[in-house]
Structures are given as C-alpha cells and as structure tokens.
Amino acid sequence: MINLNNKRILVFGLGVHGGGLGVAQWLVKQGAHVTVTDLKTAEQLQSSLDALRGLPIEFVLGEHREQDFLNADLIVRNPAVPRESKWLQFASEHNIPVEMEMSLFVERLPRGMAQVIGITGTKGKTTTTLMTGAILKSANPKTVVAGNLRVSALELLDQIDADTPVVLELSSWQLEAFQSHGISPHIAAITNIVPDHLNRYRDMDDYAQAKGVIFRYQQPGDYVVLNFDNKILTRLSFRAFGKVIWTSATRPLKEGAYREAGSLVWHWDGARHAASQRIIDVNELRVPGEHNIANALTAIALGSIAGASPEQIANALREFRGAEHRQEFVREINGVRYINDTTATAPAAVIVAIETFAPTAKGIVLIAGGSEKGLDFNEMALKIVSKVRAVILLQGAATDRLASAIQNAGGKNLIVGQFDSMTAAVERAKEIAREGQIVLLSPGCASFGMFANEFDRGNQFKQVVSQIVK
User: Fold this and answer.
1) CB pairs under 8 A, 24+ apart, for 146-151?
2) Domain CATH code at residue 381
C-alpha cells in the first residue's frame, strides 16, 4: 500500500457527482500534492470547485497535459474516464501507476474484501444497497454504506474497524478498479442486467462481463446473490467460484429468497438462522412495484448471509421508504401526483416505472428524453403508447430518436412537444394533467447537456414542482 504523503497525485477527472471531489479532499488530508485535470471547464465544474475552494490543489481544466501525467507518482482515475482513454494508455507506456477510489478504499480496510458486501446491477442497486444497509445496521450499528451514492467512500475510512460491515453500491465502471487488482467482495449481488451504457461498452456481452467482475475473483467460501428471473444472470452464474444464492419474485426456489403466496420467504440451510420461513408480507413493503419486491428479496438474501436475524430484516424492510430520485413522490397538487424518477436513464427503467404507476393512476403524463447512450427505444415506445396519456420531451441528443420510436409505435398524437428547460416542461405537464393522474419524470436517457447530471435534473424537477405550490 503506497504511502501518499508528499506524493504527486493526479486526479484524472473531477466530475460533478462527488466521487472526484471526495478523492481530492481525502488525498489532501493524506499530505499528497494534488493536481486535478478535467476536460470540462471551470464553469461546468463550478459546484465541485466551490467545495474544494481553499485547498492546496492545482487545477488544469478544459484540457489534459502530458506533463501533468509524466510528473505524477500516482494517477487516480475517475470511474467516468473510459478504459480506452489514450491518457490511460499514455500512463501505462510510462509505467505510471493508476488507481481508482474503490481500489484505494478497499486496500485500506482492516480486513479488506472480507468485510465487504458489494451490490451492482443495471437497475435497483441503489435501493437494494440502502435496504441491505438498513438491515445490517439493525444487526450492527457500525455498518457503513458507501460506493456509487455520491459520497466518497474514502471519507468514511476513519469510521471503519475490523468489525464494521461495509455495504458498497458498485457501478460497472467502479468495478474496473476490482478487475485491475483481481479482487471481488466476500458477499456480492447483481440485481439484474438489462441494456444500458452501450455507448461505453462494445455490446451486451461486454457490459455483462463488466458487471460479472463483482464475483469473478471470489473464492469458494464467498457468496454471490443473483436474480433467477433475469436470463442474463442465469447464464453468467456458471462463471461464479463462490456459492450462488438465487432470488425470484416469480417462483418458489429450493434454496434462496423468493415470493410465495403474498410473502417473501428465505430458505437456506447454510444460514446462521436456518430453515424456511416467511420474512415479511409483500403488502408490508412501503415501496411500490414488482422491481422493489425483487430488490427486497436480494436484500433479504444478503442480510441473512451476513448474519442478520429474520426479525431484524423484517423490521428494517417495514421502515424502508425508498431512495431519493427513484420513483420518488414529490407532491400532490390539485389531485395530481408528481413523481421524480430521474435515475431512470435507460428504457427498461422507464418501462418499470410505467408498469408501477399505471394500475393506480387515471393517466400518466410522462416527461422523457435527454442525451445519448446508444439504447433501443422501441420497447419503451410500445409501453408508452399502451399506458401513457401524453409525452413531454426534454431536448437532447437522443430525444429525436425517442420521438421517432413513439411515432412509429403509433403514438404521434401523444407527443406534446420538446422543451429546452425543466420549468417549461413541468408547466406544460401541469396544464395537461387532470385530477387522479400522475406527472412522471422518467427520462430513459442520460442527462448531460441541459443538466449537470441526473440528480441535477431531478432536483430541478422538484424545485419547479415546489414553485407551482407557491
């Protein structure tokens, strides 16, 4: 483990999600001489720069310079930097070591990967991570929850000792840090794999292999929880070296976590609390939708393997109220509910949202569209045509493709128009929506261009809705 004091560290990619920000702050505390480089301008990175104001950091923005890479003792790469970056190749050619936040974090844990519960998946990983964290905190209050949650894991190291469970939400990009070191969490889970980030990966197989890193380097005494209802995961499971524990929201299982007769059941003879038993009734969950039943089953399996009792698991799930920006209820105005689902950045997530709310709403006014990820909108368009009353589009590089898919599916008359601000989009939705209906922000696209990131998009939605009330 490298001693960072007085070392010249280059943070390669600051970003606005908080990861690069937290890394830079932590490195300064370690006594490193920190330089931050990012292709974005100071104006684009203003929120991150404001948080770093006053710290002894050199900034090189709007460009990357060879001398900054050549002068570095260590490069810390932001997960958003693609594997194929010419600057990573440049660093390799000059034998400059490259790390990521997650690799710096796990190598400093008292017991390393042995105390890590890692969770990934295309959708549901944040909710499942927070569910699992709540369960384990009820069993051990020292439990730490970190990872892809806009909080730097490194900043939490001082809270962790050898008896602290660490629950990490891990994106496929963050898992690249684990691949470079050939490590995987002691207990891992993949919620699901559906098309996403195909602007970053060659194809779905490449994307699935990136997710599979979470269990690829496990040992025989490790565990991986997989969703039996996801066909990609059933194929991927044959590459697991650890013990595979299945979950299913659609059928009983011989072993694992599953739904049966309106209840969520856990059965595993190897668990500390063995025997088949009902954990919680489905109607006791406070978060709606089939997808959240699947998330809860994964959390039940993870919590049980990690040693939580059935009572601790049930109580934590009864109290869990969901994650911000994920099918988040904002307000009800004149009988219209406003729902923030900004993290639905892929068509599959929009389909889930529509299926969740359509049965109880008299109609859905959907706000969608944004920047490009190279995904297919055809299935999403069919769902929109069958379940949605009106579509309001946010301008972006992918929006025209989405509009064409909706028109080709027979929904030309559903499209109200394209808008260049969240204020204009929500105001138009307010004019259209009637009592008993839902205004649903569920974009199906990335956010960059009009917004700093998807969370900025969600926050703007909530702010505009609050202004309507005023």
Assistant:
1) 146/105, 147/102, 147/118, 147/119, 147/174, 148/174, 150/17, 150/18, 150/19, 150/455, 151/18, 151/22
2) 3.90.190.20
